From TrEMBL:
Positions bound to ATP: K89
Name this protein carries in UniProt: Protein kinase domain-containing protein
Record keyword Heme present: no
Domain of life: Eukaryota
Any one GO BP annotation for this protein: mitotic sister chromatid segregation
Organism of this sequence: Huiozyma naganishii (strain ATCC MYA-139 / BCRC 22969 / CBS 8797 / KCTC 17520 / NBRC 10181 / NCYC 3082 / Yp74L-3)
Ranges where the record places region Disordered: 1-28
Length: 397
């Protein structure tokens, strides 16, 4: 039976910034009230070795539909402390649990959160078994970063919007090549390190590998980011629902708030129609032949959709407006694919310039490595690789 006790944190040798497995930290673990327990089956995702380890949880950092997330350190001997990690706890023996673990065990990409360890533990509060997923930890979410700027009556700089959008699209290029659909793309499920510009997609609790001709539930994705085919009840959707989510996230970074805020699911379609115009009847039929909700077939605005996009997202410039108009599209098959997004001129600045100014920094810092594609990524990019990567002249600047 696992040991467990409530203790007051004592400073130990550890560094809150060290987030690689097996790395011992100099410095002190935060002195906060913590909860300790021993887990017998801590499995390393890198080596598959199983060890008995002490887990020290010291801060709750999130709560979602499928579980809670805490910040924690792990040690095999009370001398070498690994972490900090973000440990997600979800009830064991559920379909979602096995899916999330299965996906995180095989994904390995700079823009996907890394699973370092996993183990089970019986919670003392309800005596149920919980799966624990110990993942790398980043300082903030994109939601927090957008909110910080908004709170100070500022907008996220356009260079940051491009930097973060590009990395989300690169993560999607990788996931979608495996048929993995995240199904809950939103700013709070995207981790960022504002000082380095690094971004990682997280929370795969709703993710699923979509099989051709196999139905999936339509009531998925948080409402404000839900693709129109899902709102209509489609069960034969594709990974393009994530591309819609990406468009919503880019729009939110530009205007500092969710761009489609329907107060209930069917009103969400009305909010979309305010920007895109009425959905086509063929799109509605092919999404769900039995849909009998409101059609919003009459225009809810004067002028063209292009003028609406320019009004709302003018800050992004002609390239940003063009990208959004090719991503926020009713028909999923006509939304840009990840590789076409990565090759879009909106990201030419990232190909030309190697620097950006993090928030509160007076000096520029190097951009993270955005073009270190492995062979698998280059294979997916195909002919687009040369359009995505900087030219030699750009790279030498």
């Amino acid at each position: 039976m696992a040991e467990e006790r409530e203790v007051l944190e004592v400073p130990l040798n550890g560094n809150p910034r060290a987030d690689t497995q097996g790395e011992t930290a100099p410095g002190a673990i935060p002195s906060e009230k913590s909860y300790e327990f021993v887990a017998d089956d801590v499995t390393s995702n890198r080596t598959n070795s199983v060890k008995r380890m002490l887990i020290k949880e010291y801060r709750k950092i999130g709560r979602g539909a499928f579980g809670t997330v805490v910040q924690a350190y792990i040690t095999p001997n009370k001398e070498n402390w690994y972490g900090p990690f973000a440990i997600k706890k979800v009830p064991a023996q559920t379909e979602y649990k096995s899916r999330e673990l299965e996906i995180l065990r095989v994904t390995d990409h700079p823009n996907i959160v890394k699973l370092e360890y996993f183990f089970t533990h019986v919670s003392p509060s309800d005596n149920k078994v919980y799966q624990h997923l110990a993942m790398e930890c980043l300082p903030a979410t994109l939601q927090i970063e957008i909110s910080r700027y908004a709170h100070n009556k500022m907008e996220l700089p356009l260079k940051h919007v491009k930097l973060y959008s590009y990395q989300i699209a690169r993560g999607m290029l990788y996931l979608h090549a495996f048929g993995i659909c995240h199904r809950d793309v939103k700013p709070s499920n995207i981790l960022v390190d504002p000082s380095s510009g690094v971004l990682k997609i997280c929370d795969f609790g709703s993710a699923k590998k979509l099989e051709p001709d196999q139905p999936s539930i339509s009531y998925i994705c948080s409402r404000f980011y839900r693709a129109p085919e899902l709102i209509l009840g489609s069960t034969q959707y594709t990974t393009q629902v994530d591309i819609w989510g990406l468009g919503c996230v880019i729009g939110e970074m530009l205007v500092s708030k969710a761009i489609f805020q329907g107060q209930e699911p069917l009103l969400q379609l009305r909010e979309i129609a305010k920007l895109l115009g009425p959905p086509d009847k063929k799109f509605i039929f092919f999404s769900n032949p039995s849909y009998d909700g409101p059609l919003y077939s009459k225009p809810l605005f004067t002028g063209t959709p292009q003028s609406r996009f320019e009004k709302y997202f003018g800050k992004s410039g002609p390239d940003g407006i063009d990208l959004l108009m090719k991503v926020l599209v009713y028909e999923p098959q006509t939304r840009l694919s990840p590789r076409r997004i990565l090759a879009h001129p909106f990201f030419d600045d990232l190909r030309r310039e190697k620097y950006f100014f993090p928030r509160d920094h007076a000096q520029p810092v190097n951009l993270p490595d955005l073009f270190n594609f492995n062979e698998f990524e280059l294979q997916i990019l195909g002919d687009f690789a040369e359009r995505v990567k900087p030219s030699q002249e750009e790279h030498s600047q």
